[in-house]
Amino acid sequence: NITRMFGPLLAGVLVAALGVRWCFTLNGLSYIPVIWGLAAMRIKPFNKRQREDKTVLKHIAEGVRYTRKHLVIFRILVLSTFVCMIACPYIVLLPVFGLTVLGGSAYTLSWLNGMLGAGAILATLLFTGVHDTQLIKLRLIRDVMFWGLGLIMLGMSHNLYLSLGAMFTIGFFMMSVFPTMNNAIQQMVDDSMRGRVMSLYTMTFLGTMPFGSLAMGWLSDRYTAPVVVTGAGMLTMAMGIGLVFRNTVRHRLRDVASGIRNT
User: Fold this and answer.
1) pTM of the entire structure?
2) Which end of the chain is more exposed for a tag (fewer CB within 10 A), N or C?
3) What distance in Å separates the CA atoms of residue 102 and residue 82, rounded to the nearest whole number?
């Protein structure tokens, strides 16, 4: 998140001074220390006798069956899939906002990304783990609704400062949603299924976000980027409102059932 804040600002300076090509060149060269670090790792050989006689697909199927039996984990995975397909892909349209909607330059795009990182850093610093299931639900509902509000602000704004505020809001609540979901799953999952379930959680955003980005790019060609991002924000807020309604109905039904049993 720190690099998400300062990286774009540095890139804006480099684009203005050296051009886009050098940014890609320097980005590629930055992988050399990482590759060196990986090559320098010394890993103990894996004991073949410990290996289970199962394919990857069988492990995935076991994880899916497990999550279907644990409804809270299953619903968190569904929520993660939704926000990754609807609320996350706005990032591919940021150059349109920086250069066309706001009429700015590479610096404008850098500041938009930088404010996204600033919001994410603050959310990370303020994040605290929650152990109560009801509090987890309430936090996710709040974060999803404010994330949607930030997207609506970004989509409707033609003012740089309002757009920067929208990006800060998006970054803050986005970085609150994912750790909360991660924290909840880690607490609820059995140790024997932790790797498989967390792999499914990772698949929800690494596997679905590209499809959402493709859809947003296609729709923006037909309805403009601000309209598409505003629509994504409305859908995200609708998801949050739907969760509020569902949570309220469940509590009222539970109170009614409790009253019937007491009588």
Assistant:
1) 0.78
2) C
3) 28
